[in-house]
Amino acid sequence: MKQIVFNTPGSAEVLSIIDVPIPEPKVGEVRVKVKAAPVNPSDVVFIQGVYGIPPQFPDSPVGFEGAGEIDVIGTCIGPDLKIAQGQRVAFATLGTWSEYVVVPATSLLPIPDNLSFEEGAQFFVNPFTAVAMLDEVNLQKGDWLLLTAAFSSLNKMVIQLAKKAGIRVIGTVRRAEQVQPLIDLGAEAVVNTKENLLTDRVKSLTEGKGVQACFESVGGDIGTQAIASLGKDATMLIYGLMSGEEAKISYGPTIFRTPTIKGFWLSRWMEESSVVDKAKVAKQVYTIMQQGDVTLDVEKIFPLAQAAEAVTYSTQSGRRGKVVIQCG
Ligand SMILES: NC(=O)c1ccc[n+]([C@@H]2O[C@H](COP(=O)([O-])OP(=O)(O)OC[C@H]3O[C@@H](n4cnc5c(N)ncnc54)[C@H](OP(=O)(O)O)[C@@H]3O)[C@@H](O)[C@H]2O)c1
Q1: Which of 40, 136, 146, 266 for mutating ligand 1's site (highest number of atoms within 8 Å of CB)?
Q2: 258 and 138, same structural domain?
Q3: Tell me: the pLDDT tens digits for 23-48?
Q4: Please, what is the angle between helix 220-228 and helix 198-205, to 10°?
Q5: 244 CA closest ligand 1 atom index
């Protein structure tokens, strides 16, 4: 089978396509014929060698999530799992930019009939992060949530979920054309940080109180302003660093408003959450997707052999949705 691999950290040009044997499922595992896998920012930083999990050379596989059809069911899988050959499933494992993957049968999520493989392939990383982060900050109706880089796939999901829960979202963007679509999606206010100072806008929107929570993924000056926008006992979850620059902490507001600033990483959450909590979030994600409560936008689809082009395209500014690799 064909698989995308790399042998040295770098950007798109380090990727190559090789032939490897089709993997065989062991006890409790299934083999899935992969149909689609997204290019996420985590894939890009993994290829650069700066992600939380280091690549294992030679021939490190790539891709953390995907969607496909069950091809072979391994042994010792109980009937209560209700899986069948040909079933459409989403999964998370390293190496999804391949024609086949082998995954534990218990880790599969069925894809609702209303979703394509390209949408189902985005079922794990962003939806689980969105639901788990919203659970963690536990906001009440009317609370303010600040989202930096609000036009990201993840935040478009958060906006739609927050709107349903009556949470008021302030989002930041750096392109004027991204303001109105986020208002249409349910954001209360969208700040174009190229034109406005975030701290001023948050101050006036929240009548000087600041926000109750912030999901921060940019860093640099935007991160610095987001920290200064936190209200009394607010929680900031730092989960990305898209500018590549560190933010500064304003000591005054931190002393007097006593916010909590901490990291969020889905891999840790997956490792450390109880089976019950994970099942709860998985059920929430499945229901949200089945009911069409959030949209999973796809910008462009590339064949597996053009994974390098897909990575380059994914790093371009101004995309409207995910870049997806069609694996088979
Ligand atoms: N910690 C975790 O467990 C976890 C899980 C999931 C996702 N994430 C992180 O969440 C973030 C979003 O992921 P995604 O898949 O939703 O991304 P995405 O759909 O690729 O969107 C990226 C967004 O970030 C904006 N952006 C990029 N660089 C920026 C910068 N320097 N300043 C301001 N905005 C910038 C882009 O805006 P433009 O259109 O203006 O370029 C775009 O709207 C990523 O950092 C990802 O690593 C973390």
Answers
A1: 40
A2: yes
A3: 999 999 999 999 999 999 999 999 99
A4: 30
A5: 31
**Token reading at 240:** 């990305």
Residue 305 within a domain: yes
Residue 17 CB coordination number (10 Å) = 15
Question: In this structure, are 160 and 224 located in the same domain?
Answer: yes
**Domain annotation covers residue 279:** no
Q: Are 259 and 235 in contact (CB under 8 A)?
A: yes
Query: Count of CB atoms within 10 A of residue 7's CB?
Result: 13
Q: Compute the average pLDDT of residues 108-136.
A: 95
> C-alpha distances in angstroms, 52 versus 13, 110, 190, 240?
21, 28, 31, 11
Clarify whether residues 7 and 66 are in a common domain. yes
Cα distance between the two ends of the chain: 10
Is residue 221 located within the same domain as residue 311?
no
pLDDT at res. 82: 87
pLDDT at 81: 84
Domain annotation covers residue 287 = no
Residues 162 and 113 in one domain: no
Cβ count within 10 A of residue 79: 6
* Separation CA 32–CA 279 (nearest Å): 21
The pTM assigned to this predicted structure is: 0.96
Ligand 1 closest atom vs CA 41: 47
> Number of folded domains in the chain?
2
Range of the domain at 180: 126-267
pLDDT of amino acid 80? 84
Cα 162 to ligand 1 centre (Å): 18
> Based on the number of CB atoms within 10 Å of its own CB, is 210 exposed (0-12), middle (13-18) or buried (19 or more)?
buried
Ligand 1: centre distance to CA 211 (Å): 21
Distance CA 313, CA 305 (A): 14
